[in-house]
Amino acid sequence: MRRFWYLTGLCLFAFFCVGTSVEVAAAKAMQGEIDLRSVDTAKGETAYLDGEWEFYWGHLLEPADFAEGRLPAVRTMLHVPSSWSDTSFGAQELPTLGHATYRLKIIPPPGKQEFGLRMADVSSAFKLWVNGRLVMENGIVGDSLRTETEYRALRIPRFVSNGEPIELLMQVSNYHYRYGGLVVPIQFGASRILDVAQVMRWGLIFVVIGCLLVMGIYHLVLYLTRRCMVSPLYFGFYCLLWTISSLCSSASDWIIRVYLPNLTTGFLYPLEMISLFVSIPVGYAFFHSLYPQEFSARLRLFAAAAAAVFSLFALVASPLALSRAVPWFYIFSMGVMGYALIRLFKAARLKRDGARLILCGFLFVGAAGMNDMFNDMQIIHTPWMIPAGMFIFVLFQAFALAHRYSMAFQSIENLSDKLEEQNADLQDEMAERTRLEREIVHVSEEERRNISRDLHDGMCQQLTAARLHCSVLESRYAGSGPEGAEIAKLAILLEESVDQAYELSRGLWPVEHDARSLVSSLEELAGRIQVSQGDKIALQCELNCGNCCNSNSNQIYSIAKEALLNSLKHASAQSIRMTLDCCSSPSNLILRVEDDGVGRQVKSLSRGGLGTRIMAHRARIIGGLLSISDRAGGGTVVECIVPCSTWFRPQDATLDVAE
Description:
It is a single chain. The longest helix has about 90 residues, at about 385-475. The strands form four sheets. Strands 2, 4, 5, 8, 10, 11 and 13 form a seven-stranded mixed beta sheet that branches. The chain is rod-shaped and about 175 Å long. It has about 650 residues and is of the alpha+beta class. Helices cover about 50% and strands about 15% of the residues. The protein has three domains: about 25-195, Galactose-binding domain-like (Jelly Rolls); about 200-405; about 520-655, Histidine kinase-like ATPase, C-terminal domain (Heat Shock Protein 90, 2-Layer Sandwich), CATH 3.30.565.10. The model is unreliable at about 510-515 and about 645-659 (pLDDT under 50).
């Protein structure tokens, strides 16, 4: 946090240095005359023409009037800078609206040189003569609202002096604003010094306005990319509003007139005020979007309503009425700023994200805003500070945004690392689970194989022997009456028992790798189902090796058997085509069972029954992929793709078994 304070101090130092880069000599006008012979213009010194000026209220005098002695009877003095409405002559208090003439005698530094006068803000119009020569006219001076044409802009009139006394004569009229007269100091100095200082000031103002514009556009684009975050939208509009206000403001010396000098004050002044009015609720909405628990939603609505009222008034009211309403808005905005400052302190104390940085920036912009508001209300006479305050506020908001995104990226990186670790653990767990499933399946299949062998080599052999003995007895007692008939029945039962025992043995272990192949087992399965069910089943095998050597033959056989039974039981199929293929993809073995039944559209489109889940489980544990889809023209297609590591040179080993 300390480096942010260092950077802030450096920014303030730069602004103050530029604002005071021109040395100002201490001199005061007395009785309408100011002595500036001690001002060393060679060293870049300047002077403010503050003090007592000759003042002629209600008169628009010209140099000829002074030359011919046509002057009012009473000669009064008025302190400059000040508004004439703040001055009273005896029991008479001067009104805000009116016109007057100012006069000052300057004793300049010796020698011939070109001087200039920096006249920043004179309301509403003025004419300036130097030694009887008209050098500047700002607007049209008049004696009423009808005859006056307002125009507010920075002016630096120039004139040459040989070291002789200089007489300044100014006509000033004001019928448009709440303050009239010379309310801002007039700076006197060498024209080149004033020009350089003004260029430097405008350069810094351009930097501030450019930063506001860039930050405004950046935050609006940021909102468009992430609409879930509304705070960039408010801050983007806030920066754009202050960009407009700064371009049209006296605090920036009406910098917009450098490029658009013909814009009227009647257009710029309401535009500046509306931008200022709207910026208060938008700024508050920005704080509320960041810290909704600390900032009141009701005050947000109240601020928006107040800004809307002031903005509508600015559109319809005269410049005089608008300027008189501005102090009331200042009071309202001071209250909102004070509340926001308190709530930001609370957010910072609660360690909300970025609250300390935003609080630091708001302290500067708040202090600058208070300074300029008191300055505009003629309570104090200080330089305008809002450009510096806004620059620092935007700078700290940029710090807060960068910090917020840095923390977000760090959180994402930490989450990504954690997810990678969890993913690795999950993959290890899945691999271990798959290994255990395969091991369980292997143990189960091995046990089934052992039982199948025991049945085949034990019970089946014994039953076969019993059947042979019974055959001997049957031939011996043939035609011998009831005994022969009973022995014949026993022979039939033993023959059926032998068949059932062999069938049970083959069901427990259908694929005997050392003696049979997957193709032979599928042939036998298709033939047996066709005999028992009466359906037509076609088996087509296109293999690269004569006998399928896939190590998962038993699981493939079980999947084929379940698919065939599903087609017969649920699809009401009349014909079934089963294909075993590895020629189209040597690295995969493809089992395809296709029927002409009713299809899944007629049946329920549910996730499938137990048989379907068992097929999917068997395919998964052997690394295969099972898919069930509808067949074009009706029916269902079950396809299982199983990786096959055994590969021989392709050869034509097509086998068709149709019946």
